[in-house]
Amino acid sequence: MRIQEARIEPFFAEIQASLGSEGINRDPETLRRYGENTMPGGDRSPVGVVYPASTQDAQTIVRAANRHGVPLYPVSTGNNIGLGSRSAVHPGQVIVDLGYRMNRILEVDERLAFAVVEPGVSYQAMYDELVRRGNKLMLDVTSGPPQGGMIGNALDKGAGYTPYFDHFGFACGMEVVLGNGEVLRTGDGALDAGNLINWHTSKYSFGPILDGLFTQSNYGIVTRMGIWLLPRPPAIRSFHFAFPDDDDLEQIIELCRPLKLSNFVPTLFRVCNDLYLCGSEGENPEYRASGGKRSISDEGRRALRESHGVGAWTVSGAFYGPSAEALEPQIKRVRDLFCQSGKARYIAHEEAEGIGPLQVAINTFSGIPSVGELGLLKWRPGGGNTWFLPGTPMDGKIANEFQRVCRKVYEDHGLDYTVMNVCGPRFARGLHVITFNREDEDERRRADDCYRRMSEEVARLGVFVGRAPLDYHEFHMGQAMASFREACSGIKQALDPNGVIAPGRYGIG
User: Fold this and answer.
1) How far apart are CA 187 and CA 200, in angstroms?
2) CA-CA to 26 of 20 to 30 Å: which in 91, 97, 105, 355?
3) Which one of 231, 246, 264 terminates a domain?
4) Mean predicted confidence (pLDDT) in 90-105
């Protein structure tokens, strides 16, 4: 995938003539940093980085790439930790860092509750702007890096925890530079007119809905997007329940489902196992003794739970309302329901505020970015981290079968079963964290084998992943039916005939 020198030099000369010297960086240290990731498969160094400052600059870059046959890899802020960071799928591509100069909040409409942003606008930047404006609106945040890009996360089908959890679903209206260099506007933005008053308020307009083509694909470069915002409620009160045993997951799912089907609880449920919560608080206390060869013991897990005041599973949710007092009846109803099980221990909002990992949950329900879960990167030394993201229907028996299968795969590979199930009415996404020592060749191999084995096991049970780390794009595309693969290739040929945008991303050539 390395680019011939005869192609790359004329490409960069053309970009420099158009964007200026500040639009290009080929410094070896810069290339090293842009190639870094946390995957088992290793870093992937680009041949250069370009920094567009506008949609027109992005068009210039794409057209030059077509003329010279240079593969591009666009990123927004590059904070997709555990899934690839800023690293391209293949070494030798040119990183298009959209976020470095395209980082403006273009509009905030407080009456209709939406914002329009460029790729470099992070959750922290958007939160800070809303606070500056009086904190009347809130955004849905991830529990990942506050500097993560809102557009990048939405296009990778990322999600949060409030009623606006579906980041792509609550996006409205895109501007896209296609692989042929042309600009496409989606939704009401497709109207060939200047004053587009519905572009970011009407998601489904005339003709086919094209927005989804640009999620987890390589058909174009999104340079702006509308994001819907939520009016900030006067009061937010969380509730939490700790369960003592691994197999309590079945009962938890059965308790959560009716509360979400009726939408009595407005947030999603965060159902975290002990290591997902405790793993953000420090290194595995047993790692050094085994040299990372064994999973943490049941005794070690119990000690961590007691130390941090959480359960084998801990359930978190929240209510919104006019005052804390007005929310007490809802919390009592949920508390009565969960405690009928005889196993749940209730953790009130005030108590949870003193438990670091549960404060992260409160922040996410409140639309406040936080860094707490980044501590999971330190659970084992060496900086290795990848995410396995399947899901299950909201059926307790099926969810429990999945946790047993995945827990065994982790243990067979000497790794530590770390997962949060994010539960809606009918479906729960499993966020499995594989933390490993990237500096240890054997541990890298075991982490890679663990991921692939779990993927095969859940596929056997009828489940696909929702997002994929960089190392496994081609692997997962190979699991898809032939007609799906052929459709993806056909769209690629139509929108990017020379294949210059992110070849290989999500397994699309």
Assistant:
1) 8
2) 105
3) 231
4) 97
Nearest CA among 429, 361, 446, 417 for reference residue 391? 429
DSSP at 149? B
Alpha helices by DSSP H, listed for 167-225, are none
Burial class of 204 by CB neighbour count within 10 A (0 to 12, 13 to 18, 19+): exposed
Distance of CA 194 to the CA centre of its chain: 34
Confidence of residue 4 (pLDDT cuts 50, 70, 90): low
Same structural domain for residues 78 and 181?
A: no
Q: What is the CATH number of the domain that holds 53?
A: 3.30.43.10
Nearest to 39 by CA among 468, 477, 425: 468
- The per-residue pLDDT of the chain, averaged, comes to 96
Q: Please tell me whether residues 365 and 454 are part of one structural domain.
A: yes
H or E element, residue 162: none
Say whether both 216 and 247 belong to one domain: no
Please state the φ and ψ torsions of residue 366, each to the nearest 5 degrees.
-100, 0
CATH number at residue 128: 3.30.465.10
For the residues 341-362, what does the mean pLDDT come to? 96
Pick the closest to residue 410 from 371, 367, 380 (CA basis). Answer: 380
What's the start-to-end Cα distance of the chain, in Å? Answer: 12
pTM: 0.95
In this structure, are residues 111 and 200 in contact, taking their beta carbons and an 8 Å threshold?
no
Q: Do residue 391 and residue 503 come from a single domain?
A: no
Number of residues written out for the chain: 509
Which of 147, 142, 220, 185 is CA-nearest to residue 467?
142
- For range 348-358, the mean pLDDT: 96
pLDDT at residue 323 greater than cutoff 50: yes
